[in-house]
Write a structure and sequence with these properties.
Elements lengths: L1 H36 L16 E5 L2 E5 L6 E2 L4 E7 L1 E2 L6 E7 L8 E2 L2 E3 L6 H13 L5 E8 L6 E8 L12 E7 L11 H15 L12
Parallel strand pairs: 4-10
Antiparallel strand pairs: 1-2, 2-3, 4-8, 5-6, 6-7, 6-11, 9-10
The structure holds zinc ion.
Zinc ion binds next to loops.
Length: about 220
């Protein structure tokens, strides 16, 4: 009987150790993701030649650089292209939002957008991401704003698309896609920068004199 109990407790301890290990790994991964997003994660080895990187002062700023090749980890902001897509014949019936399927901010509503591909123009990023996330083939009408959030190492370029009358549909990386009237927006928008862009668009619509005269959205 004691042996059985002893066996059970060893199995129990083993399961507990596995669970703890899994929880620790999950916590580490989440922390590293947050650090990466904030631009605080540093390379240790050169992605060109695998040499250990060293700290070097370049133009009075400390960078990680490779002693064997020319690689310098500049840690430049990542470009993000986002589209505010007005809905309706005159673009005043609402905007297209996507419900995020994955973290960060899984389950929250955001404007369609995402990271730029290599050598991609932000306009191209916004168009491509709109196709991928809300299944709409958009045309860019105007640059709405550029933002750099304090908690992410990103340069976010927001465009206004020409209004659409086709209903959006969720792409493979979206949980849901739909049109929201501007006075019936979700309580919480996934990112404060997106909320800022939407607020700016609402201001423009309420004060047509703010809209650049050459912007023909209708
Ligand atoms: Zn190197």
């Amino acid at each position: 009987m004691q042996q059985v109990l002893g066996g059970a407790s060893i199995a129990g301890l083993f399961v507990m150790a596995l669970s703890l290990g899994w929880a620790l790994q999950t916590w580490r991964n989440k922390r590293r993701s947050a650090q990466y997003r904030a631009g605080k994660l540093a390379y240790r080895f050169c992605p060109n030649c695998s040499e250990r990187l060293e700290k070097r002062m370049i133009e009075d700023r400390e960078k990680l650089a490779c002693p064997s090749c020319s690689f310098v980890f500049w840690n430049n902001p990542i470009m993000v292209g986002v589209a505010l897509i007005p809905f309706g014949p005159d673009g005043k019936d609402g905007i297209v939002l996507v419900k995020r399927k994955y973290n960060p901010r899984k389950g929250k509503w955001a404007l369609p957008g995402g990271f730029g591909e290599p050598n991609e123009h932000p306009e191209g990023t916004s168009k491509r991401e709109s196709g991928e996330e809300v299944c709409l083939d958009i045309e860019i009408a105007y640059l709405l704003m550029v933002d750099s959030p304090p908690d992410a190492n990103q340069t976010i370029v927001f465009y206004i698309a020409k209004p659409v009358t086709t209903l959006p549909a969720p792409g493979s990386e979206a949980e849901e896609a739909r049109v929201f009237k501007l006075d019936e927006l979700p309580e919480e928008i996934a990112f404060s920068t997106h909320a800022k862009a939407i607020a700016l668009w609402k201001t423009w619509l309420s004060k047509p004199e703010l809209i650049p005269p050459w912007l023909k959205i209708a």
